Amino acid sequence: MKTLLTFFVLLFSSSAISEIVTLDDGRVIDLKADGTFTVISEQANKIDNSFHESIIFLLDLSGINYETINFLDNSSFVLKNIDIENSMHIEELTLIGLNREYFQNFNLKKFDTYKGKLFKKLSIKNYSLIDGDFKNKIGLIDINELDIKKIHILKKLIESVLGISSIPDIADILLLIDNFNLNKMIIDDFYLTDVDMKGHWNSLVVNNLKNSSLGNLYYTDLELNDVNEIIKIDKFEINNLLFNRPTTYTINWNEFNLLNDPLILFSFFKSLRRVNVIGYYQKDKSSGIEVVIDESEIADFNTKKINNLSIPVSFKARTSGTKISTINNLLNTELKKLNYNEIKFDGELILEWNTTFNTFAINYQIGMQNGFDLNIEAQIDNLNINLINLIGIYPDLMNSLMAEPGIKKVKISLQDKGLTNRLINYVALDSNMTKNEFIDHIIEQIESDEIIESSLKDDFIIKLIKFLQQPDRVEFSINPSTPLSYEDFTLLVGNPNLLVELLNLKIE
Questions:
Q1: Where are the domains of the chain?
Q2: What strands, in cross-sheet order, belong to the sheet with 28-32?
C-alpha cells in the first residue's frame, strides 16, 4: 500500500504543509509552506496542460500499473487490466464526465473550493483483492453522479487517515455526510472470504442519497456464514430513510456526553417509510435452532419535533410466517408431545401517539398456526408531551408517569385454534391425570381462591370454566369512564370489587 499512500499524500496534503505545482517549463514540484520545494518530475516541456496528460501523470505518480488507457473524450477514459501492489486487480475501469476543474493541470488548491460534481459515472468490472486468507471479489461497481459539496472536509478526512493532519471534528463529519450526494450506486456479485467467515450478495443498489436522506436501498441473495451462525436473506429493502440535517440541531460536541444527556439521541433520526425483509433464515450452529421468516416489515416510523427534539410518535411492525425449528432432540420431543412438528407465527404491532389529544394507542396481534390468534388493543390518555422534558430527571419522570397517564381502554381477545386442548393434554399427561381430571383440578383451584370475590365468581369464573371445557373465543375488556392511573390502581388493589366496577371489566 506504500505507493497508494504516497499518491494520496501528494493528492490531498494540506496547502499549509505543501502544494503540488506544475511550472511553466513542465516540471512538477512539491512546494513547501516555507517556500522551498522538491522536484517530483523532471519531464520538462513533456507534460502539457491537457486533460489526457494530467490523468496519465497522476496515474503514473500513484504507482498504479495498467495495460491500456483509452480516452473517450476530454473528460472520460477507460483503463484495462489494472494492478495495484500485486494484491488488487481490476479488469476494466471506466470514468465518464470527470470534473476537469479538479484534475486538469492538477493543483491542490482546487480541492479547497467546491467546483461541481466529481464525475458523472464510475464503472468497475471484475474487481479482486487477495491478501493471504482474505479474498474480496466484485463483479460490477457502478457509481452515478457523485457530488461532495464540502470537498474541503473530505480532503481533511483523507489527510487524517494518512496521518498528516488531525481528525475532523464530529460536526464536520456530519456536515460532510449531509453534503454527500449520490444519484445511484450498484454493487453486483459481491464475495468476501476470510479465515473464519464468508459472505456474498447478488446485487446491492443505492438510490438517491442526499441531504442526510436515503431514497432507496436494497440487496438480494445475501448469505453470511461464520463460526457461530448462518444468515440468509432473499431481499432486504429500505425506502425513504430521513435524518435531520446538521443545520437543524445544535450540539456542543466538546461537551457531548450521551450518558448525561440521553435526549441527544432524539436529535438525529427523522422518519422511515419502510424496511422490508423477504425470506429470512438464521441458524445458530451451537444450539441447532433455526429461524425462518417469510416476510417482516417496519413501516411509517415517524417523529414529531417537540422542544427541538424528534420524538417517535408512530410505528408499525409486522411479521408473517415466522417458523422456529431445532435439531435438539429434547425440544423436538416436547413439541411432539404437543402434537407439533414445528411452530409458526404471524404478528403485527402498531403504536401511535396523538400529541394533539395526548393519547397513546397500542394494537398488537399475534397468531400461531394451529394454535391461537391473540389481539390486544389499549389506549392511554393524558400522556403529555411535557414528559419529554423530564427524561433524565428520574424521580420527577417516574412520579409523573404514575400520576398522569391513565388507562382508557383495554381489550384482549383470544381465539383458540387448537393450542388450549394441546396444552391441557400435555400438562395432564405430565401430571398423571386424564384430560377431564386436570380440567376439574383447575376449576377447583379457581373456585377456592379466596382472593377472587364473589362478584367475579358469579360472572367471570363461569365463562372461564366454559372456555376450558370448550375452547373457542374469549374476550376481556376494560372501559373505565375516567382513565385510571398507576396510582389509582395501587390505591384500589385492596378493594377488588370497587376496582372491577371502576374499570368496567367484562368478559365475553
A1: 1-187, 196-354
A2: 18-22, 28-32, 37-41
